[in-house]
Amino acid sequence: MRKTNVAVVLVAVITLVGGMAAVRTVSAENSWKPDKPVNLVVPWGAGGATDGVSRQTAMALEEPLGQKIVIVNQPGASGSVGTKGVLDKPKDGLYWTAGAVKDLGVYKVQGLLDTTLDDWHLFLNFAIPNVVAVNASTPYKDFGELLEAFKQNPGKIKVATAGVNSAGHTAIEMIKSYTGIDYKHVSYDGGNPAVIATVAGECDVVPQLSKEEVDMLKAGKLRALAVLADAPLSIEGYAQEIPSIKQWIPDFVTAPIYFGIFVPKGVPDEVVATLTDIWNNTLVNSEGLKTFAAQNAMIFDPAAGEAALKKSFPMVQLDAWLKFDSGDAVVDPSTIGIPRP
User: Is residue 14 scored above 50 in pLDDT?
Assistant: First the structure.
């Protein structure tokens, strides 16, 4: 009887091991191995936050993916031109786009592009805060002084952003919604040009992302006044801690602005499975991306799928309803699955 039981156990073990091996084989056979370079369309200008984080992420992805990733800058219409180009491409997994999830989530609200987050697989890389900064030669020493200047000079102080729907434009509009200020909006083709314009004296204020401002802050060309976050921000190589905007607007509500790579739904399942595996098991351990985040005042927080949606959705809600309440929306966010926060 004992021999019989041992034999049965051995057969069961062999069967189990064999089954596991078969599962691994099937999984390996079904993993996606692109035979051509992947095209990553950055729908904003070169040198901005989206461009920078996308290029760094692409470099970290090439080895585990086993293929080159070609960056193509295609700016226009607040990022919707390049995004639509990817949406219209064949769903073979070889065309991705990138940017802030909040932008992707409000295109339809603004009437820029008929798409919602339901049309995309989300792969997050970094969360990046907005920093309100001024040209170092301006007299504003803290955000309170700037706020008073806005009130004393309605519609006259020039604010540089990467355009409507950019993170910088959302930031200044959020400030406006709490304070009632008015300003002169000067739009540029990307965050980097907006920063350079402020350094050059074309504009007084730039509320773009920390990644886009960090070099000029360290060089003393810009002065940081406030960060749109609940806590102060410290930047490696910048001596001054940047205070939270809540120091002046205590009830200010914001959420992390998550960036990532977006793959249109309809691609083969193995494309999504492969990228999800890389994100959860390889990218998360990238020392290069961790260092990049620390040097640029960003949070390295990779996530894929439902986890990515959960992390990034609060800012989508805030931005969508900000635009609706200010009259800049053509679609009620609640009708496309974006409830009021």
Answer: no
Report yes or no on 31 lying in a domain: no
Token pair listed for 308 = 């990515």
State how far the Cα of 98 lies from the Cα of 8, in Å rounded to an integer. 54
How many beta carbons lie within 10 A of that of residue 89, not counting itself?
Answer: 15
Give the residue from 116, 100, 173 showing the smallest Cα distance to 334. 116
Query: What is the CATH classification number for the domain harbouring 172?
Result: 3.40.190.10
Last residue of one domain, picked from the residues 247, 265, 289: 247
DSSP string, 167-215: HHHHHHHHHHHHH----EEEE-SSHHHHHHHHHTTS-SEE--BHHHHHH
- Residue 131 pairs in a beta bridge with 227
Q: pLDDT at residue 163 above 70?
A: yes
Residue pair 38/96 in contact (Cβ under 8 Å)? The answer is yes
Domain with residue 276: its CATH number is: 3.40.190.150
Predicted pLDDT at 189: 85
Find out whether 244 and 231 touch, Cβ atoms under 8 Å. Answer: yes
Q: Looking at residue 198, what is its pLDDT?
A: 98
User: Which domain does 292 fall in, by range?
Assistant: 38-128+257-336
Lowest pLDDT segment from 6-20, 137-151, 218-232, 273-287? 6-20
Q: Indicate if 225 and 282 belong to the same structural domain.
A: no
Does residue 28 register a pLDDT over 70?
Answer: no
Tokens coding 312 = 């990034």
Calpha distance 154→187 (Å, rounded): 18
Write down which residue in 219, 247, 275 finishes a domain: 247
Give 244's DSSP letter. B
Q: What is the pLDDT of residue 223?
A: 97
CB atoms within 10 A of CB 253: 12
Q: Specify if 8 maps to a domain.
A: no
When divided into structural domains, the chain yields a total of: 2
